[in-house]
Amino acid sequence: MTDVEIQGMLKQNLSIMHDAQDNYLTFLINSAKKNIQEVGITLDLDEADDVNLVIMYAAYLFRKRAEDNPVMPRMLQFALHNRLFSEKMKPDAI
């Protein structure tokens, strides 16, 4: 899936109907990918689950700027842990 398609899905997730924040959303998508890869996850953006992980993470980055104490949602924490564990438990990963 392309970054443009991911951005469109992120905009739907955030209920954004305009293009005024497109550059910022692209930045957040790239940051989300980098942060996810830094924990050891190899992203495959042809897989729906990985695309959803990037969108959830980018949406979290967008929303946390409006909070005083932004704690990562448990749903996102679990998704990251589950994805990392499933990748590391594959026989070819050992």
Account of the 3D structure:
- With 94 residues, the chain is mainly α.
- The chain has one domain (3-93).
- 65% of the residues lie in helices and 0% in strands.
- It has helices at residues 3-14, 22-38, 48-64, 74-88.
- α1 packs across α2 (22-38), α2 crosses α3 (48-64) and α3 (48-64) packs antiparallel against α4.
- The radius of gyration is 14 Å and the shape is globular.
- It starts with a helix and ends in a 6-residue tail after the last helix.
- The model has no long low-confidence stretch (mean pLDDT 93).
Feature tags:
94 residues, 4 helices, single chain, mainly alpha
Number of strands: 0
Overall tally of domains: 1
Shape: globular
Q: What is the rounded distance between the termini?
A: 28 Å
- Please, what is the average pLDDT? 93
Oligomer: single chain
Helical fraction: 55-70%
The percent range for strand residues is under 5%
Quickly describe the structure.
It contains four helices and no strands. The chain has 94 residues and is mainly α.
Summarize the SSE layout with pairings:
Elements lengths: L2 H12 L7 H17 L9 H17 L9 H15 L6
